[in-house]
């Protein structure tokens, strides 16, 4: 007879009690790995305990520049070591803004930064970062490590004559670098941009004065690169992802310096040939160059020389700050910043002679490539919407103040010692 399927079940083996050693260390290799992990865990626990028991003074506090602070507006000033950018940084600091200057010092002066640091030494007022806007990784890192509320974008090579000789450099430096800044702003949710543009985007208009509606047909790489940058900014501002406050300021020929004599214009010697006419006049008055070279005497103007709208740097930075204060989320403002009056190169030279007291020698040459005959603004829109009007309109007086700074700083901001922060 077959055994019944319901026969008594076999007894189960007794439940085995697994010891720690039997479970993990039965294999020598596994034992070694587990020991290493345990040691590492113990070390990490010890490190955490040490860090937590350290007094607060031994812990690194976050920088005030990396924190959004109620009632404080933190402005990134690109090109803030340059002529216009340093004056803008000075005005912002005087108005109690927090300022970060980013500059690669290719056109700027570390001496100007030193002046600002000495004037505003309090923690959390001003920091300088040496960086190139052409390096996207560096720019992104700067935005990641700082809590910016707004950007004033001045950084740019800015000589018409030089732009015709090195056009690719101008497109990279102005257009591409502006795109890099804009991308960083978008990534890090910085919503306010004050863009420092130029009247060179208009080219040589048929009608004067220039209004904001005047068609833009730039005739040199400098103006073309600036217009491309404007177009990029405007296109992005219209996108649904933007919601930006944008102010574009197109300004004319800048002169003058800080009325209290703290800052001035000090271009590198190799750029004097391409520099502003005021710098050339002062160099001639100081004997650095034998005389002033005036390029072009056959333009269709009253005396044959170019006519320009000369704006004092103090008025210019005032317009930028007023634009910042009036910026509104989701809106774009475009403004001409000028006096509304054109002066010829010959008039300018006579004013410079009067300001310096030197009978400057003048040599006349053929036209410079990329120049245009006559450009001056109609500032009605900025007068009306930003309540801005040029205050320093006496050409001789602006040049006199700038000349005083030049006389006190014959070697610019100084020699090698000026490089030490």
Automatic annotation (TrEMBL):
Keywords: Isomerase, NAD
Lineage top rank: taxon: Eukaryota
Name by which UniProt lists this protein: NAD-dependent epimerase/dehydratase domain-containing protein
Similarity field: Belongs to the NAD(P)-dependent epimerase/dehydratase family.
Cofactor (UniProt): NAD(+)
Single Gene Ontology MF annotation: UDP-glucose 4-epimerase activity
Domain NAD-dependent epimerase/dehydratase span(s) in chain numbering: 75-338
PANTHER family associated with the record: UDP-ARABINOSE 4-EPIMERASE 1-RELATED, UDP-GLUCOSE 4-EPIMERASE
InterPro entries: Epimerase_deHydtase, NAD(P)-bd_dom_sf, UDP_G4E
Upper lineage: Eukaryota, Viridiplantae, Streptophyta, Embryophyta, Tracheophyta
Species for this entry: Lolium multiflorum (Italian ryegrass)
GO biological process: galactose metabolic process
